[in-house]
């Protein structure tokens, strides 16, 4: 049952991270908002790994060539996915943007079965399908005409990038010959460090003003990084224990937290149709936990 608890922790934290990034997107460009996810998460990941070794010492892992390939691929894909999500926030309101990005569960299911040797039971596929329907309802509140082709393509690209990130994170974790949760913590640290180095290097060369601004007004950036670290800790740990489609389908309960944040913090309304979608998400969660 540990994967369920880690997934719920990740979904709750990620809903807050998305809310913080939605606020930041009104003050900062896409690159700055994307970096805010990783900037202070690296030190936290290092402290977490140190704490694990302090209380439960194990050997230092040996990484294979495949380990590095998966880590590099996951790092780049997550940067791309985060950037696309920020663009989505500029296309639609916060709740709808997050809803479009959450279609990664069915994408991860198909990619996992086709290329990563993932197997799902009939109940598991039913949960993924119900979750996909609920995401479609949230993404298209007034039918297909309510969403532009551009927004739909960005949403599909975003969800596919997130799906590949998750699948490669799981593969990287499985190549590390360590017990759980040490292997997940190592992958988490390396992915975040690589992402931070890539983005900081790019901004030093192309956008120093935005980088300086992230340190002059750090409160929202720090909150985003903390929420992102806790969310990534939950996702990476859950995906080390369970297949990605099931983790991501259960993770769609994030939309429930997102709706609450959207209503109480961002003051955006919730429609009755959204409530029905939330009910379907609950059903999908029960199916995958079954």
Quick rundown:
With 290 residues, the chain is mostly helical.
Outline the fold blueprint.
Layout: H1 2-24, H2 30-36, H3 41-55, H4 65-91, H5 94-101, H6 104-115, H7 122-139, H8 149-175, H9 182-206, H10 208-216, H11 219-241, H12 244-250, H13 254-264, H14 272-289
Helix pairs in contact: 1-11, 1-13, 2-4, 2-9, 3-9, 3-11, 4-5, 4-8, 4-9, 5-7, 5-13, 6-8, 6-12, 7-14, 8-9, 8-11, 9-11, 12-14
Summary keywords:
mainly alpha, single chain, 290 residues, globular
Describe, in plain words, how this protein is organized in 3D:
The chain is an all-alpha fold and 290 residues long. It is built from 14 helices and no strands. It has helices at residues 2-24, 30-36, 41-55, 65-91, 94-101, 104-115, 122-139, 149-175, 182-206, 208-216, 219-241, 244-250, 254-264, 272-289. Helix 6 crosses helix 8 and helix 7 (122-139) packs antiparallel against helix 14 (272-289). It is globular, with a radius of gyration of 18 Å.
How would the global form be characterised?
A: globular
Question: The biggest beta sheet, please?
Answer: none
Distance between the termini: 11 Å
| Rg calc | 18 Å
The helix-strand sequence is HHHHHHHHHHHHHH
Total number of strands: 0
Task: Give the oligomeric state.
Answer: single chain
Mean pLDDT across all residues, rounded? 83
Percentage of residues in strands:
under 5%
Spans of at least 5 consecutive residues with low confidence:
none
Continuous helix count: 14
- The secondary structure category is mainly alpha
């Amino acid at each position: 049952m540990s994967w369920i608890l880690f997934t719920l922790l990740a979904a709750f934290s990620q809903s807050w991270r998305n809310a913080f990034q939605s606020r930041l997107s009104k003050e900062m460009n896409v690159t700055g908002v994307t970096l805010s996810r990783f900037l202070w998460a690296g030190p936290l990941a290092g402290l977490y790994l140190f704490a694990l070794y302090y209380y439960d010492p194990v050997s230092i892992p040996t990484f294979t060539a495949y380990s590095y390939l998966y880590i590099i691929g996951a790092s780049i894909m997550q940067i791309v996915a985060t950037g696309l999500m920020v663009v989505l926030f500029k296309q639609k309101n916060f709740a709808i943007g997050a809803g479009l990005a959450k279609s990664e569960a069915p994408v991860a299911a198909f990619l996992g079965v086709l290329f990563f040797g993932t197997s799902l039971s009939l109940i598991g596929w039913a949960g993924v399908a119900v979750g996909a329907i609920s995401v479609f309802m949230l993404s298209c509140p007034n039918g297909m005409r309510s969403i532009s082709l551009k927004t739909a393509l960005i949403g599909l690209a975003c969800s596919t990038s997130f799906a590949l990130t998750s699948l490669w994170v799981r593969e990287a974790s499985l190549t590390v010959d360590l017990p759980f949760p040490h292997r997940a913590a190592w992958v988490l640290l390396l992915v975040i460090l690589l992402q931070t180095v890539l983005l900081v290097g790019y901004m030093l060369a192309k956008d120093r003003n935005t980088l300086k601004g992230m340190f002059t007004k750090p409160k929202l950036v720090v909150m985003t990084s903390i929420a992102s670290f806790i969310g990534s800790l939950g996702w990476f740990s859950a995906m080390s224990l369970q297949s990605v489609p099931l983790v991501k389908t259960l993770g769609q309960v994030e939309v429930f937290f997102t709706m609450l944040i959207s209503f109480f913090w961002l003051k955006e309304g919730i429609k009755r149709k959204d409530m029905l979608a939330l009910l379907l998400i609950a059903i999908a969660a029960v199916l995958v936990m079954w």
